[in-house]
Amino acid sequence: MKISRRQLIRMASAATIAGGLLGPGCVAANRNRRVSSRALSLRVLQEKLEGGYAMAGERAAIRDLAGITRMRGFAVDHDRSDIVLFGSVDPDWPALKLEDFTVALRNAFYLYTETIGDTAFYSYPGCSIDPDAEFIARLESVNERVADLVASGREEMAKAVWLDACRSPQSVKIFGVPDSRFADICVVADYRMKALCDGSLELDVDGFESLARRRATRVYADMRHGRNSTVSGSSMNRFWFTPGAQRFKVDDGISVIDESSVALRTEREMLTAQGTIAGTGTVDADAEQWALDFTGLYGEIARAEGSGVYFQLQQLFDHVALAKLLVRESTRSGLPSISVLLQGLRIAKVGVPNELEGRGNLIPLRHVTETTHKILTRTASLQLCGGVGINVDITEENIAGNVPGMKSLRGNVVAARPEQNRLWWNLPDEPGVAS
C-alpha cells in the first residue's frame, strides 16, 4: 500500500486528536483550567463488552476510557476482583482510546510475538521509515548538479531537482503491534518529525528551528566572514523517538506512573563500501542539539504542530508503561482477569502504508563578497532516517517501592467507587488522589 506525503499529512491533520496531558515540564495552554481525577473499572468495562449491553453513553465511555486524558496508574480491588485504572481529566485534552491501551497490553503480555521455528521473538512497539542505500547513492550523485545550478543562479531549478530526487519511496516497517491506530500514530509522528527536521514544515515555537535552517545559518555566517566552514552542507542522520525520563512507584496492589516522557535521539549514519546504510556510533553535534531541543520543547511543539500526533505519541508511551506495570503485578501477585482485553476485543485494522514518499528540503546559500565581489554559493540539505521505539522497561533503577502514601492512595481510589457495578467515577480532590 502506497501513500503520498501530502495524503498522510492531510490524514493526520483531519484525525481526531486522542492525546493526553503533556509530559513532565510541559506548560499547559490554559493555565486556569481545572484538572480532575477519574477512575475506571476494568471488570465492569469487560463485562459490558462481553455482554454487549452497554448503553449509548457507556459505549462512548468505554471507547474513550471514561474521558481520562492521561493515565496515572492502577489499583487492585481484591474484594471486587477488579483492576481500577485512574488518571487525569484535563478539559484542554481529548480522551484516551481503549484500542490503543489494548494494543499496548497485548504487546506487554507477549501476544504479538513472532514465532520462527521453535522460538518466539518479542519486539517493543515501534516503527521505522528508512530509505534504501540506492536512494542515498542517487542523492549523492545529484549533489554536484545541484551545486552547479545554485552557482549559476538557478536556485529554483536546483531545489526542484533535489526535491524530485528525494521523492523516491522509503520503506515503512512496524514492530511489535499489528496494523492499527497505534501503529499509524507511530508512523505519522516519525514522518512529521522529518518534516520539522528538514524545514519543509516549520512551527512558531520560540527557541526551535529546523536542523536544516540551523545548519544553513552557520554555513552562511562562515561565508560572510570568509571562514572555511566546519559545517558539512550535507549529512545523514538517524532520529528516533524513545522513552525519556521514566519513574514509577509501586506497593501492594497499586502502581503509579510518576514520570513518563518522550525523547528524541540521534546517530550519524554512513553509506558503506558494501552499499548499505550503517550507524557510525557517533553523533553530529548540530543533530544532537536539535534532538535535545525537540525533547525539551516537546509540549510546545505538540501544540504548535496542529495535528495532535505528538499528544497521541505521548499517550502511547504512557499506555506501554502502564501495561508493563500490569505485567509486573501479574507475575508478582496475580491480577483479576483481563481476558476480554487480551483476547476478546477486536482491534480495527488501519491500513498503514508499507512505503511513503521520501521527503527533503534544500536551502541554497549565496553571498557576494564586499571587496572582491566574488560570488560564494553553498547548499544545506539533509538525508534522514527515523523511527519510534517504545522500549519502556520497569527496572530496579526506575521503580520505587514502599513509598509513603501509596496504600492510602489505593484505599482512596477504591473507596471512592459509589456502587459495585459503576463503570467509572470521579475521585475526590484530596491529597494522594488528584493530580
Structural class call reads: alpha+beta
What is the number of beta strands?
Answer: 16
What's the structural domain tally? Answer: 1
- For the residues shown, what is the average pLDDT? 82
* Silhouette: elongated
Strand content: 25-35%
Q: How would you spell out the order of helices and strands?
A: EHEHHEEHEEEHHEHHEEEHHHHEEEEHE
Which radius of gyration do the C-alpha atoms yield? 24 Å
Low-confidence stretches: 1-29, 372-378, 430-435
Oligomer: single chain
* Secondary structure tally, helices: 13
Helical content (DSSP H or I, runs of 4+): 25-40%
Q: What's the N-to-C terminus distance?
A: 43 Å
Largest sheet, in brief, is: 14 strands, mixed
Q: Could you name the key traits of this structure?
A:
disordered C terminus; single chain; 435 residues; alpha+beta; disordered N terminus; 13 helices; two-stranded antiparallel sheet; 16 strands
In brief:
This protein is an alpha+beta fold and about 425 residues long.
Structure description:
With 435 residues, the protein is α+β, with helices and mostly antiparallel strands. The chain has helices at residues 5-14, 42-51, 56-63, 98-108, 133-151, 155-166, 181-198, 211-224, 285-296, 298-305, 309-332, 339-344, 406-415; strands spanning 2-3, 36-41, 70-77, 82-89, 114-116, 119-121, 126-130, 169-175, 234-251, 254-271, 277-279, 355-357, 362-368, 375-389, 399-401, 424-427. It has one domain. It has 13 helices and 16 strands. Strands 1, 2, 3, 4, 7, 8, 9, 10, 11, 12, 13, 14, 15 and 16 form a 14-stranded mixed sheet that branches. Strands 5-6 form a two-stranded antiparallel sheet. Residues 1-29, 372-378 and 430-435 have low confidence and may be disordered.
